[in-house]
Each structure stands twice: as structure tokens, then as C-alpha cells.
Amino acid sequence: MECTVLASGSTGNCIYISNGRSALVVDAGLSKKEMLARIGASGGDPGLVDAILLTHEHTDHVRGADALARSLGCPLIGTGGTLTAFRSTRQAIKKIPEQICCTKGVSFTAGDFEVTPFAVSHDAAEPCGYAVRSDDLLLSIMTDTGIITTEMMEILAQSDGIVLESNHCPDMLSTGPYPEYLKRRIRSRTGHLSNTMAADCLRELNGSLHTVILSHLSEVNNTPARAFASSQEALGLDMSYIDLYVASPDIDCSCLSQTIKI
Predict the structure, then answer these.
(1) Other C-beta atoms lying within 10 Å of the C-beta of residue 149
(2) Which H or E element spans position 260?
(3) Distance between CA 210 and CA 66 in Å, rounded?
(4) Does the pTM of the predicted model rise above 0.85?
(5) Buried b (16+ CB within 10 A) or exposed e, 120-144
(6) What is the mean pLDDT of residues 42-62?
(7) 260 phi and psi, to 5 degrees?
(8) Alpha-carbon distance 212 to 242, whole Å?
(9) CB under 8 Å, gap of 24 or more: what pairs does 79-83 form?
(10) Given this model, what pLDDT does residue 98 score?
(11) Separation between Cα atoms, residue 116 and residue 128, nearest integer Å
């Protein structure tokens, strides 16, 4: 299984997952044209995409979802709350693509993948993360949550690879330009994980985990170097057998990170 982060951050989020026979897109927060260009630039095949999974309805995760789904002829999949909230913003669009409702904790098949949605804590209607299985490999994606619950940790601990939010550096957020109400939202239980929280999560994980992609970094309140250093320190000696990557918020077609094998 291979994973390419096509976009990550407050300006747009999109992940392409493939096993060579089938592919999924998780979130579609760029324009259709840009997402197709990035899939191609990274060596992916849009024709393999069997479904687009939505984690929640915020614009940076769904901006181009309906257009991409129509172009690829595939369904949008999300929780009932996410799909209802998404439809409420698309009332002017006459041709809405097929939508399939999933339930947290209940696995379903999408293409060649077995997918299990799981609950996260974010200020959206019914947000979720996804555990995606292909053959004997499990990739879990958890990008927008203010806390990490026992259930989340159990899922991450079973995974071979994870895409984990490392949104902000606490010091940069505290001294940065954001107004206090926004800083409180980011720090809240329904906000975003800090570098420290992501590092604490990795410190507790063990077992089969061998690939970590830090994602959803704030362009204002974080840097890739700070996120990497925080998690690197937490992993300690485990860094010798865990591949740690950072999805930079300034990804574009000319500098797409290499596709990562899980």
C-alpha cells in the first residue's frame, strides 16, 4: 500500500492511497483540476479511484469533493452528519454525486480496501478518522481532533502506518498573531493536536507501527522542522525502525513529496 499526501494544512487537504489495483482519496480540499494534476504528478492513477472519503465538512477538506467525484464517477463516503452538512453547502448544485453514509465503528468495503471509520473530536457535525486495510497492512488517518481517546490509541496501535495531525507549536500559537478566541478554539478538545500531543501519542505507541506522516501543520503556528523535532525526540531509539515524514503545508505539483510505502 502506498500513501501520498497531496495537500495538507488550512488551505486544503487531500490524500491519495493506492495498492496498485485500487485507490481511495481521503478529503478533497482543492479544486478538481489541482487534485487531478497532483495525483498525476505523484505517479498516481485517477482511474483507479473507487471512492472519496470525507473526514468532515470544513471547506479545506471538501472544497472540490463533488466536482472530483463527478469527474471520476465515484461516490462520496462520510458519516451522516458530515454528508448532511456537506449537502447544505451545495444546494445550488443540481447534479450531486452519489453519497454513501458510513457509521463509526462499522467496517465497509471500498474498492479493494476495507475501511473502518472511527470517532474523533473536532468542531464539525460528525467528524471521523479512517482505518484503511489492504491485505495485511493497515493505514490510519487522523488529521483533525483536539484530543486522543483510548479508542483512537487502540486503532493507531494496530496500524502499520499513520497519518497523524501535528497542527501547531504551543509556543508559536501563544505568541502568534491569532486572536485569543481562535487560539482557544485551536487548543480546545474540539480543536487541533499540538506538536506536543502528537509526540506524546507516538511515545505511547508500540507494536507494528513503522511509518508516521505528520500532517495538517499550521502555516502560521508551526514549521515542519519543529513538528519533526518534537516527534523525533519522543520516539527516541524507536526512530531506528520507524520512518518519520512531515507533510509540509506548502506542497505543490513541483515539490510533491515522494509516495510513501506503508
Answers:
(1) 13
(2) strand 260-261
(3) 34
(4) yes
(5) bbbebbbbbbbbbbbeebbbbbbbb
(6) 97
(7) -105, 125
(8) 7
(9) 79/103, 79/104, 79/117, 79/125, 79/126, 79/127, 79/128, 80/126, 81/124, 81/125, 81/126, 82/54, 82/55, 82/56, 82/57, 82/124, 82/125, 82/126, 82/127, 82/128, 83/54
(10) 94
(11) 10
Residue with cell 497492512: 137
| 253 has a pLDDT exceeding 60 | no
Split at pLDDT 50, 70, 90, the class of 224 is very high
On the question of pLDDT at 206 being above 90, the answer is: no
When pLDDT is averaged across residues 236-241 and rounded to a whole number, the result is 85
Q: What is the dihedral of CA 174, 180, 185, 187, to 10 degrees?
A: 20
Alpha-carbon distance 5 to 26, whole Å? 9
Are 204 and 153 a contacting pair, CB within 8 Å?
yes
